[in-house]
Design brief:
Blueprint (H helix, E strand, L loop, with lengths): L1 H8 L5 H8 L25 E2 L3 E3 L5 E8 L5 E6 L5 E5 L1 E6 L5 E6 L3 H9 L11 E6 L4 E5 L2 E5 L7 E6 L26 E7 L5 E12 L6 E5 L8 E6 L4 E7 L5 E7 L5 E7 L12 E6 L6 E4 L11 E2 L6 E2 L5 E7 L28 H6 L1 H5 L3 E6 L5 E3 L7 E4 L7 E6 L14 E7 L5 E8 L4 E2 L5 E6 L4 E6 L4 E4 L24 E4 L6 E4 L4 E4 L8 E2 L8 E5 L15 E7 L5 E6 L5 E7 L2 E2 L4 E2 L6 E6 L6 E5 L7 E2 L14 E8 L5 E8 L9 E6 L23 H6 L3 E5 L8 H17 L4 E11 L1 H9 L8 E5 L5 H5 L2 E2 L4 E2 L1 H5 L13 H6 L13 E4 L10 H12 L4 E4 L11 H20 L5 H4 L21 H4 L6
Length: 955
């Protein structure tokens, strides 16, 4: 019997196989039981995701992309009626025709073929190209077209597709004399072949040398710009596929450029921007705005540099795509100041490059650097009345942002400006002034000043509304009456985060939307939806009743084009129980009856796909053990059918389980966290345990973590599959004491896990990234509880970090330390001791735990000199410390090869300290710079052992 148990433990014999050995011979023996194995690093590439999904309008077809993390994927067409499926290799960008009969998508070249061409140093135009696939859903017939760059399907109606790509290569006829003039070649400059193909008949219309094209939403027309050929003039064309009618609406010459083609809602009007200067070396371009409508022979020039409505010297913007009002009566376009250009006669040594940092800069120089390209392309809203052709300038440098009212149909727009408040770099809370701007004459009226929130316009334009941060309340401003109304007061009912622990204003729970006619706003509190009429806000109506049971209710928007929430129809809601973590769906009836439709021990998202013309729904659900596959049902949610099975291979691997755990912080605060356990967990054994944290995670009980390389934080599934426990504690904070708060919550949590009897107290690791990296670095200065620690991108010295810059945004870091995540609650000169006491750097001599860091030299969130400060301190103190710097990477890794490398190194590091695995060469001996990118030193060191690398745990 002992021998049998030993074989089972070693994985050498399954119970089923053992039983077969004793059983008599049978004609059909049962299949052998699969012996599961732990996850390894080589599983990442073939683990799959579903990044694209679409349901047909008739509800019969579900199309989705099924892609491995690295390699060739496919598009799948699943018949929701017959449950049969077909697939096409390497498809992406999937779209379905409005009649539900065809799927259109790109077909990518084989990944290995592309890599081989790149290894062979092929030029860009010699690399394998995308193809276009058109798939008939009913007959499963696929038609492919090579070398396609893009395609467009009308959003509504029609049965055709337009695609742009290279013409088929034709071998030259060697029997004929070569032409004296070199034929025109397709290129980005000259354009490519545009094909308009009827999906059902397969008939095609081809247009040569097209540079830009656009499809009307309803499929009535197609517009394109061509540089011309022997039988085609240069210019802009409109084509009607139904009648095969082609109209040249603007004639140009080959060097003219046309861009930003835009149709109105009905496809009866077209606008575009033209650059008619034939001198390509001119630095300042002079774009023109053109307009065409059905029945016109040619397009009309509406505005140019001489007639534009802005200040003298301004130009028509070539970066803003013209936009028609919904009713087609107005055309909105962009203007911009004449650009400042470099004197091209200067030599490099004659150019002075200097930044002047002025104390009254409205934007820091670093912010200006981040937004430089965006600022160069910045445009300001203008408008032309298409009835009388009157031009009106709406936006300005003082009121740079503009928002249309009622889809542009209104006689006004709303302008937003934060210029007056943008000098307050130490405060990240938004502030703005809002203006009412007339589309008749451009006159401006201040609607509301000093709004401390993000103001927006209701769908039909009756109200400006916002959540006021300092008031912790929702407001609406009646535009017609010019009256501000406070909708909520956050007293009897709180509409902002009840558990927020920042020394700052709490965030609102959000809104579901406005009802028809802007009659009322649907606002979320922690659990429920409230209907509030701005004309009678004191009579707020609660539509759901979830607070007593701690059940949150959120509206699920099923129509992407929906402008208003229709309370006269049943509403689909997603639900989450805060206590049990169960989630699901419910229905809110027009009589305010909430009916539970579907609920369980899983997580569902707010993304639900509904067929436009059928009672068919698709949604995802997930648990730690189950990938978020897609499921089909009808509006009753009574019959649920699984549609996808992205990762069936998971059944071959050891996985694990997760549960909620409870304990009390050092100050007595009750806390929750998650404990992940290995599969076949045995409470009588001792397991190594990883500790990971980032504020609060208990609500992620049902989140699935597919095995994948590490961007920044550890992969729970990989660790538990390899025999680790993973403990993820929640943290609550006290203003001024972020480090001590982490200690107060995490250390008692770890001790409570040890008390359960199955944690090896001498084999506990700790890992965190960014804010979690800081807390990891702080904790090892306060306790020797952990055998090894990994701190990703940690802030080590708050005094130096406080005055720094978040380089990705250019923002000052001061607000982060005073009021947001760091939670100090004051400036460096107001609370210097808190900055010092909470900085790991000043406690470095106390550290006895080995520390691994990953901090990259292009980190735009936490400057990497913070990692350097910590590394240099520990190095000087002769503490075991390693810092991984992936050159050119930012706060989290993005290059897959680097993510894979970090995964290997991180697991090697913890396996060495927590499982007594041999130290790899990079840990024992380092990696000389002369070998960077050549030898990775991942193999075990020739001479290794835990003693010379240091260790941490208290005995």
């Amino acid at each position: 019997m002992k021998k049998y148990l030993l074989l089972l433990l070693l994985g050498g014999l399954s119970p089923a196989l053992f039983a077969q050995k004793k059983a008599k011979k049978s004609a059909s023996p049962p299949p052998p039981t699969v012996v599961k194995k732990p996850l390894t690093h080589d599983v990442y590439d073939f683990w799959k995701d579903i990044p694209e999904r679409v349901i047909s309008n008739n509800g019969q077809w579900f199309g989705y992309a099924l892609n491995p993390q690295e390699g060739d994927g496919k598009v799948v067409f699943h018949n929701l009626t017959t449950h049969q499926a077909d697939s096409i290799a390497r498809g992406e960008g999937l779209k379905l025709s409005t009649d539900s009969e065809f799927a259109v998508f790109k077909i990518k070249p084989q990944l290995e073929a592309t890599k081989a061409a790149r290894r062979a140093k092929k030029k860009k135009d010699e690399l394998p190209k995308d193809s276009l696939g058109i798939y008939a859903l009913a007959s499963k017939k696929l038609v492919k077209f090579p070398t396609v760059q893009s395609f467009k399907l009308p959003e509504k109606g029609s049965d055709w597709v337009a695609y742009l790509g290279e013409s088929p290569k034709v071998k030259p006829d060697t029997t004929k004399k070569a032409p004296s003039k070199r034929p025109k070649r397709e290129s980005d400059e000259n354009g490519y072949r545009l094909v308009v193909r009827q999906l059902k008949s397969g008939t095609e219309k081809i247009f040569p040398f097209v540079t830009e094209y656009e499809v009307a939403k309803n499929g009535k027309r197609l517009a394109f710009a061509s540089t011309g050929a022997d039988s085609t003039k240069t210019g802009v064309y409109v084509f009607e596929p139904a009648t095969n009618q082609l109209t040249l609406i603007h004639t140009g010459v080959p060097k003219h450029k046309f861009k930003k083609l835009s149709f109105d809602e009905n496809g009866d009007q077209l606008a575009f921007v033209a650059d008619l200067d034939t001198n390509s070396k001119v630095q300042i371009r002079l774009p023109k705005l053109f307009h065409w409508k059905s029945g016109d022979a040619t397009a009309t020039r509406l505005a140019d540099e001489t007639t534009q409505p802005a200040a003298q010297g301004w130009l028509i913007s070539s970066e803003y795509t013209p936009k028609f009002s919904k009713d087609g009566a107005k055309l909105f376009f962009g203007t911009n100041p004449k650009p400042i250009v470099q004197d091209t006669t200067l030599l490099n040594e004659e150019i002075v490059n200097v930044e002047v940092w002025h104390w009254q800069d409205t934007k820091l120089q670093t912010q200006q650097k981040v937004s430089l390209e965006r600022d160069r392309k910045k445009s300001y809203l203008a408008m032309v009345n298409l009835i009388d052709k009157k031009l009106v300038q709406l936006g300005s440098e003082l009121i740079p942002e503009a928002e249309l009212i009622n889809e542009g149909n209104s006689d006004f727009i709303v302008g937003h400006s934060d210029i007056r408040y943008s000098n307050q770099h130490w405060d990240w809370n938004p502030k703005e002034d809002a203006y009412l701007i007339s589309t008749r004459d451009g006159s401006k009226t201040l609607l509301k000043e000093k709004i401390q929130g993000n103001a927006r316009v209701s769908p039909e334009g009756k109200y400006l509304y916002w959540f006021s941060n300092p008031d912790t309340a929702w407001f609406a401003h009646d535009i017609a009456a010019n009256k501000t109304i406070q909708l909520t007061n956050n007293k009897a009912v709180k509409f902002a985060d009840e558990e927020d622990d920042h020394p700052d204003f709490p965030n609102p729970y959000g809104i579901a939307g406005w009802t028809k006619g802007d009659q009322s706003l649907l606002i979320y509190d922690r659990f429920d939806i409230w209907q509030i009429d701005p004309l009678n806000p004191s009579n707020a109506k609660k539509l759901t009743n979830g607070r007593g049971s701690k059940q949150s209710h959120r509206y699920v928007r099923l129509d992407a084009e929906e402008r208003n929430v229709d309370l006269s129809k049943p509403m689909l809601l997603s639900t989450v129980n805060e206590t049990t973590k169960q989630s699901g769906f419910a229905q809110l009836s027009p009589t305010l009856q909430v009916t539970k439709l579907y609920e369980g021990d899983f997580s569902v998202g707010n993304l639900v796909l509904k067929a436009k013309n059928a009672d068919r729904y698709l949604f995802t659900k997930q648990t730690f053990k189950e990938y978020p596959d897609w499921y089909a049902t009808d509006g009753s949610f009574k019959s649920i059918t699984q549609v996808t099975n992205a990762n069936p291979q998971q059944s071959n691997y050891l996985w694990g389980s997760v549960e909620i755990v409870n304990w009390r912080a050092g100050d007595g605060t009750p806390l929750q966290g998650l404990l992940y356990k290995p599969e076949n967990f045995d409470s009588t054994k001792k397991y190594p345990m990883m500790t990971y944290f980032y504020e609060k995670n208990a609500d992620n009980l049902h989140t699935h973590y597919a095995p994948r390389p590490i961007r920044s934080y550890i992969n729970f599934s990989y660790f538990v599959s390899n025999g680790y426990l993973v403990f993820v504690p929640d943290i609550v904070y006290k203003t001024g004491y972020p480090g001590q708060s982490a200690y107060n919550c995490i250390v008692p949590g770890v001790l409570s896990m040890i008390d359960k009897g199955f944690v090896d107290k001498d084999k506990i690791g700790i890992s965190g990234h960014s804010w979690g990296g800081y807390q990891t670095a702080y904790l090892v200065t306060q306790t020797n509880l952990f055998k090894a620690a990994e701190a990703g991108a940690p802030v080590a010295n708050m005094t130096s970090a406080y005055g720094g810059i978040r380089w990705d945004t250019g923002l000052s870091r001061q607000a982060q330390y005073e009021r947001t995540q760091t939670r100090i609650g004051g400036t460096l000169w107001e609370k210097p001791m808190q900055y010092l006491e909470n900085s790991p750097l000043f406690h470095a001599p106390k550290i006895q735990t080995p520390v691994l860091m990953m901090h990259n030299d292009d980190d735009g969130a936490v400057p990497w000199y913070q990692g350097i400060e910590f590394y240099m301190a520990l190095k000087r103190l002769d503490k075991p410390v390693w810092m991984l710097n992936y050159n050119g990477e930012k706060h989290g890794l993005t290059k897959r090869q680097n993510m894979k490398d970090f995964a290997v190194r991180l697991y090697q590091y913890f396996d060495h300290y927590l499982k007594d695995a041999p130290a790899p060469s990079w840990m024992a001996e380092g990696l000389p710079l002369v070998e960077k990118g050549i030898n990775q030193h991942l193999a075990p060191a020739k001479v290794s052992g835990g003693s010379q690398l240091g260790g941490g745990s208290e005995k």
